[in-house]
Design goal:
This protein is α+β, with helices and mostly antiparallel strands and 689 residues long. It is 34% helix and 17% strand. The strands form 5 sheets. It has a 7-stranded antiparallel sheet. Strand 8 and strand 9 form a beta hairpin. The radius of gyration is 26 Å and the shape is globular. The relative contact order is 0.11.
Amino acid sequence: MIFTQRIIYCINPNCNDPINPEGNDFCVSCQTPLVHRYLWAVGSLSAKIPPNTKVANRYEVIEPQVWLDTQPGLPPDVPEELPKEVIPYLRLYQEWLHLPQAYGFAHDLEEGVADILLLENVPIDKMGHIYPTIAEAWEEATAVRQVYWLWQIFQLWTPLSELGVTQSLLVQGNLRVEGWRVRLLELVETSYETSLQKLGQFWQPWIASAKTSIAKELQKIVEQMCETEVELDAITTQLNNLLLASAAELPLTLKVSGSTDVGPVMVQNEDSCYPNTVSQLDDTLLPYLSIVCDGIGGHEGGEVASRLAVESVKLQIRVLLAEVATQSQLLSPELLQEQLEASLRVVNNVISARNNEQKRQGRERMATTIVMAVQIPQRSQALAYTLGEASYAQRLVEKLTEGIATSQSNNSHELYLANVGDSRAYWITSQYCHLLTIDDDVATREVRLAKSLYRKALFRPDATAITQALGTRDAESLRLRVQRFIVEEDGILLLCSDGLSDNNLVEQSWQDYAKPLLRGELTLEDAVGNWINLANEKNGRDNTSVVLTYCRVSPEYIAPVTLTPPVENLEPEPAPELEPEPELELELELEESQKEEPTSFTDSSQALLDLQLDLDISEEPVIDPEIPPTLIEKPKRDKRLVMVGGVLALLAGGTSLGLFAWWQINPQGFQQMCRQLPPTIQQMCSGGK
């Protein structure tokens, strides 16, 4: 250990003079942004090392257990055989929004320092200060944020218990908060029996100072948790109901804009997005849906795949939102997540069927990445029904007694997010920029399978090759994860293709490009254009798509209302026709005979039943799972596809809440529909008996 002046090295390997003072943001020599990577050093030994000490001639001790890597461009030391203590961090990688990740190990033989585990993605700000504990931030938090923090902890209980680290959620100093999200400093191996009863007891001091509007309901929930026998699902439901009811008391204004650009180098734009600059302003999906797709497979593959994905998703979400509007009770997050997962499997099968039709194999198969966000506006009527009219009315009275305006949004503020591939989503406020998605690439696969630490995996030559995309193989092989967030603060949801996100461009530039929008200094459309111009200037070798959703919950800053059709008026309409091209043609046909036949379906479900699909999906792709979809080549296309997602959605298990029971409700109508389909799909219908 040595005491030195604090410096930091530039990550540019070609920099002539990489040494910089720690306080610099850019390298003095080459102007490369400097990376200030603060780490958490695990263990009692690291806690004894004083500040201003440099360990292993690399790690600067800022304060006890908070270290700065002064050479972030170099790989950290990692033993050949990963220690047992590291495995939970790797297995829980998908929870990285809340959990730290193993970075490497530090040892200093001269000073007798044994291997110390270092963690990255920790709750430490850009100045090296640890974020506050929940206890420290609790009383200043809003009611909805208090419930939201508890919800996040509760959602972590099961995955952490499966790996024996639930004690991590029962240590006061370990639970930190950065704005809306809960973050853990480290994982603590469980050394005693943990239970929901102990978690309830751990929460009790917070509940005593909870906001008046939620205190009674929270106390009831905690009392149930403290009972000897309590069902996890029952607590989950009650906590979710309270969270959505609290969120619905906030106003919510959404505005969305998007665009896609071919870029300065590429000849063909294989990206697609929704909305884009040519979207209809009166589209009933606005402002609830946003999509970005990055096609793979060249001019006659990637472009087609990305556009198929966008149009299929739009059709299915139109139906889903119409169904949600008819519900008298709250729909659980699990049910909505299942529906959105089914929608993505449908999209995959649509593209895969086209590949099979053209006999594309291996790297020839066209595919697309996707990142999509859906704001599900569950209504206050459903909240009132679920909580009980008396309880719901009492909540409004309590809000008034707190002196808080009750300008309700009639919206539960739920935001569902899904991604496949390396297209990304970010949540940006005036204080922070959070990456919400995880790329499906080789590096993250190695971590997920507990084969490597992330920083070591990044040095593989194929580290950024994507490992899954829509259309490459059967839908059952997809690993899908749909996340649910609550919009409880002003912010911007940014969806983008890798034309913008490559080289950490969003993380480096968000303050210059997002803050002016948040301050009302430019329009949403101009902000989209600015992001695309930045991508073309800095990255430039790829297509770029950007979709921004501006979310407002602050009543004093709500912009003039732009009239958009209410959700109750969302009717399942045929997917808009694309501009005529020989490569792609979408046709929607409605059978008048079926439209006139009375059924017990909702109108939105019936619309899907009426849609005809002309696909042959008998041929299954044979794909080597280790071949990255990015290597797919671009073959000639000489056949056209007439498709729509509705019936395939039914065959995949349904994307509408009314689809799953069609056979039981109306077997005659189901068989009548099947007789109108191609022979291969008729066989699938018969198998559905």
